[in-house]
Amino acid sequence: MTKIILLSFVCLISFSFNASPQSLDALEKRYDNLRSVVKKDNMILDSLKNILETRAKQIENEKQKLNPDNDKIVKLMAGSVSLSNLIDDYQEKLDANSKNLKQLSKMLEARYSAKIDSLQLLKKSTKENSEKLDSEILLYTEKRLLISPQVDLLSFNPQKILEIDLTKTKNSDEKASLKEYLSSALAEINAELSEVTKQAKEIDAALILQEKTSKFLAETEFDRDFRPGKSSRSSTARTYESSILSVQDKLVIADQINSYALLLDQLNIFDKSENINLQKFNFKSGKANLSLKDYSSLLKELKQRLSDYKLILTNKIEQSK
Question: Fewest CB within a 10 Å sphere: which of 79, 134, 225, 290?
Fold first, then answer.
């Protein structure tokens, strides 16, 4: 009786997992389309701002001439007003789309997390098709990684902060102000460190699954080569392989990876990490590729630098007491 109930429970989970794949597909398409729009509008906005800056320089240069052309200045200023209004319109549109993109990202993250939880529960409930379940868990883990939010660059100059010495500050008001500044920087470092630690754990879990998938594929290939009549991979193996390849295609355009690389570059003030090659973590060209193992290395290095910096800030604040 217990087995029947357990089987019914497993079937119910499996049904709910596959009940509405189209709605998830539609959500993913909305995210991809909106992401493309945001990226395009960002490029247009940057271009318009560059044109406006060029016009401002032209106006200033014309004004500084001995005999400025007033008609030319009026035309340039009129064009600049129109351009400025256009920039405001694009900025408003970009802000709205960026907000919607963030909401879609949260929705997708919740859906992927629910999928992963259901699959893990299903895996615990049955020993059948564990390899296929692992491949699907890996797939949705990778998807969740790819829509995780970008980290922000630090709002302060890390090098300048290191130059602050509260022990040499005699003025109490100035000392209190600098201490508050250091505390704010420490809070920012803690927030970044928390996010990096969370992402690193996610990557490590994905790496374990990926190792299992690679081992499974190797065993399946061996089985295919040495058993008569086994000329093609099983559907489970094909699903597994598809899961592995999917992340390799998408990590090329993962914007949040580049944001981690930029933060790492911002913290490039310690001599001990000179062997780290930041170029391989740069995705601006859209041509570079990154494995989960490389991603893990990036996050571990960033976590270490953030931890080192946190220690320095903590000591600076403690010295003032």
Answer: 225
